[in-house]
Design brief:
single chain; 308 residues; alpha/beta; Rossmann fold; 5-stranded parallel beta sheet; 3-stranded antiparallel beta sheet; 8 helices; 14 strands
């Protein structure tokens, strides 16, 4: 059984011997937690609610016309089909959604045909799910063709510093993306009392690189598994699975409780935005909108996106 709406996590039937339990950590795009779960009715654990919460502050300053693009793979296509429904439900106009316009094949390097239609329709919001090089190419070609939407949100390929730097220039400025972990997270603790800020400091000392939010994700996954093995008292798979099912643990990523029907650990989702800093690495992605008081916003959202 696979957790809520993450096409790239699943792939169950593709396994030589299909597995039964996922114990996956991941985002829930729009499927709420079941009644009784501590995350039930909490928009801070839903990607769609969080992203529209950020956008709604400025929605009245746009025409609500949305251009959507997605890489044609399970993640991109699955996201697109779910997202266009959410867009319509929120009162936005997704351009040619009924035609799945904007889903493009791997290897595409020229997005002119998409950009010109978006521009002609007057889209003021650009939203995409793709790999980092393609997002950069789309933004460069938007600039070259005079298409400058007020809002750019990009999931998957806009999450990490090394990827957005490769776009060049100031293209990352104001691009929104999901944030799932920062050293500012509260009600979180690692192994032996390690703190989120301590983990971030050790990362910088070891690499000299700016924060990679994935360190919090990966740390919490390992921490949860170690805890389950310790409680099981054995490496027997069935015993460890039972221990995982009973997990209720404060981790580096706050509280971990697997949903009983899906064996899924839905994670908190915040909205971040790439912004220029005075630090040597230039770009950071602070949280600019959050429903979660334990992972609060630390900067103001830039609107509209600068294109200079």
């Amino acid at each position: 059984i696979v957790g809520t709406y993450e096409a790239w996590i699943g792939m169950r039937e593709a396994a030589a011997e299909p597995w039964t339990y996922s114990w996956a950590f991941g985002f829930s795009i729009g499927t709420p937690a079941q009644p009784g779960d501590f995350r039930a009715d909490d928009p801070g654990y839903l990607m769609v609610s969080t992203w529209f919460g950020a956008l709604d502050a400025f929605a009245a300053e746009t025409n609500k016309k949305v251009a959507v693009f997605a890489f044609d793979d399970p993640d991109g296509r699955g996201w697109y089909l779910g997202f266009i429904t959410a867009v319509a439900e929120q009162g936005y106009d997704c351009y040619r959604a009924e035609d799945q316009f904007g889903i493009y094949p791997p290897g595409t390097t020229d997005f002119t045909s998409l950009i010109q239609e978006w521009k002609s329709y007057g889209c003021e919001i650009l939203w995409g799910n793709s790999i980092a090089p393609d997002i950069g190419t789309v933004l460069k070609q938007c600039t070259a063709q005079g298409f400058e939407p007020k809002v750019v949100f990009a999931t998957r390929g806009a999450m990490f510093y090394q990827e957005i730097v490769a776009w060049g220039g100031d293209l990352p400025n104001g691009v929104g993306m999901e944030v799932y972990w920062t050293p500012d997270i509260q009600n979180a603790e690692g192994i032996g009392g390690e703190t989120p800020q301590g983990l971030a400091d050790r990362w910088y000392a070891a690499t000299g690189e700016p924060l990679a939010q994935g360190i919090g994700w990966n740390y919490a996954v390992a921490q949860t598994l170690f805890d389950a093995i310790e409680r099981a008292g054995t490496l027997d798979a069935d015993a460890v699975c039972q221990a995982l099912a009973e997990t209720d643990l404060i981790t580096m990523w706050s509280r971990v409780v697997f949903e009983q029907d899906t064996q899924f650990q839905r994670v908190p989702c915040q909205f971040g935005q790439w912004q220029k800093t005075d630090n040597p690495w230039v770009w950071e992605s602070p949280t600019v909108f959050s429903y979660n008081d334990f992972l609060p916003a630390t900067a103001d959202l830039i609107f509209p996106k600068p294109w200079d």
